[in-house]
Write a structure and sequence with these properties.
By secondary structure, the chain is of the alpha+beta class. Helix content is 32%, strand content 25%. It has 2 domains: 281 residues, 3-Layer(aba) Sandwich (Aminopeptidase), CATH 3.40.630.10; 99 residues, Alpha-Beta Plaits. The strands form 6 sheets. A 6-stranded mixed sheet has the order 3-4-8-5-9-20. Strands 10, 11, 18 and 19 form a 4-stranded mixed sheet that branches. Zinc ion (ZN) binds next to loops.
Length: 438
């Protein structure tokens, strides 16, 4: 076991701290402090390994970097290994530390991005440096990508890159990135969640339009835009979005039954999800469509009935059900409510068995013998959605062995985001092993 001081000098620990200190806050809708400095830092490290990089900006300061790393085995298709450099906003008044200070406390690095996902960005670049320094080559050609704007759906990052520069990804069939590969504890046993699919993402507005008028008038509820949009959102939220299993969640249920010793016929998927501790809220959301109202807008003066009221909905339907889902929404809210789609990304499901999964399991097993892998469907989205438009199968494999008492899933976009130093070192070793062997 390395001492705390040794860990402070570990290259992955240092790179994670360096990256957290770049404030790359993404406020959404194009408002951002920009990813340029973080991208330049990563670009410099890639170039220091002798790699040729492509640096591009979708808009000023919204910078992404891509580089190809030659592989040993030209018969194998290329693998995209990607991360994003932006982070969601952090309100310092809610944090125990400066969110961009990268302080080390209690064996962890604290800061915005420690979990999502400057940890993996650092693991990627330092795993490559380790491979490069040893004189070896990764097994297959790698396409390394650090994208801007993932935290706002990737419009100015991965989505832009895939639309404008698809040649950068030519020859790739699979990708690995964030929100998978970390350990959870189920019935006292350690298991690693491997993300093999993502739910779809639909951000839309429900809009009611009615005649504007004086606030003193008698107006039936059906003629008030605010009342109408409020009724629509209540109906939508109260709808019973029933449980449905996909290929990925069926495999997750089977893996959880094996791990817990439960018979599939004797326990519901929801009960199994609850046995996974910190991962339960995500796994529960992976079993059904979810619909959350996030912004309510309407009116501008106390005595004016507005002509328009709107509610923004963040909906995450199961993969390949988007059309059917939207038809259901229209049916629930009724024909007088308009639906305006603002941003839409498809769900994905990659094969949850096969050579990539086998290689991930083998790499984890060499560093944590006997560990189990559980495939899962991420209820949220990553840049894998954009890459899927090029036919690239995306996985979440950012390996981290975590202590049982750390609620890792809650720290994505949460306060006091932190990652243990020794988890980062473990992660780099597993990732290096995986890139050399797959
Ligand atoms: Zn992320």
């Amino acid at each position: 076991m390395a001492s705390h001081d040794d860990l402070l000098h570990d290259p992955t620990v240092i790179a994670t701290r360096d990256l957290i200190r770049f404030d790359t806050t993404n406020w959404g809708n194009g408002k951002s402090t920009g990813e340029r400095e973080a991208a330049e830092y990563l670009d410099a490290r890639l170039r220091a390994m002798g790699l040729e990089t492509v640096v591009f900006e979708s808009e000023p300061r919204r910078t992404s970097v891509v580089a190809r790393v030659p592989g040993r085995n030209p018969a194998k298709p290329a693998l995209v290994v990607h991360g994003h450099t932006d982070v969601v906003p952090a309100d310092a008044s809610h944090w125990s530390v400066d969110p961009f200070g990268a302080e080390v406390r209690d064996g962890c690095i604290w800061g915005r991005g420690a979990v999502d996902m400057k940890n993996m960005d650092a693991m990627i670049v330092t795993a490559l440096e380790e491979i490069n320094a040893s004189g070896a080559l990764p097994e297959r050609e790698l396409i390394i990508a650090f994208f801007a704007d993932e935290e706002d759906g990737g419009k100015l990052g991965a989505y832009h890159a895939v639309s404008e520069r698809p040649e950068l990804f030519a020859g790739a069939t699979e990708a690995i990135s964030e929100v998978g590969g970390y350990s959870i504890t189920v019935d006292g046993k350690r298991a690693y969640l491997l993300q093999t699919g993502e739910k779809a993402m639909l951000w839309f507005k429900l809009r009611a339009k009615r005649p504007a008028g004086h606030g003193s008038r008698f107006v039936p509820a059906a003629d008030n835009a605010i009342t109408q949009v409020a009724e629509a959102v209540v109906k939508l939220s109260r709808h019973d979005w029933s449980m449905r299993l996909t290929n990925t969640t069926s495999e997750m249920v089977a893996a959880l039954c094996t791990l817990t010793g439960e018979r599939p016929s004797a326990i519901s998927p929801d009960e199994l999800a609850l046995r996974t501790g910190s991962a339960a809220s995500w796994l529960t959301a992976s079993l059904r469509d979810t619909v959350n109202p996030t912004i309510l807008e309407g009116g501008y003066k106390s005595n004016v009935i507005p002509a328009v009221a709107e509610v923004t909905i963040d909906a995450r339907p199961l993969p390949n059900t988007e059309e059917e889902f939207l038809a259901t929404v229209q049916e629930i809210v009724g024909p007088d409510i308009e639906i305006e789609m603002n941003w839409k990304l498809p769900g994905t499901e990659a094969p949850s068995s096969g050579p990539l999964v086998d290689a991930a399991v083998a790499a984890l097993d060499r560093h944590d013998p006997g560990a189990t892998i559980i495939p899962y469907l991420l209820p949220a989205g990553t840049d894998n959605k954009s890459l899927s438009r090029l036919g690239i199968d995306g996985y979440g494999f950012a390996p981290l062995r975590l202590p049982e008492d750390l609620d890792f899933p809650a720290m994505f976009h949460g306060v006091d985001e932190r990652v243990p130093l020794d988890s980062l070192v473990f992660g780099r070793r597993v990732l290096t092993d995986f890139l050399l062997s797959y």
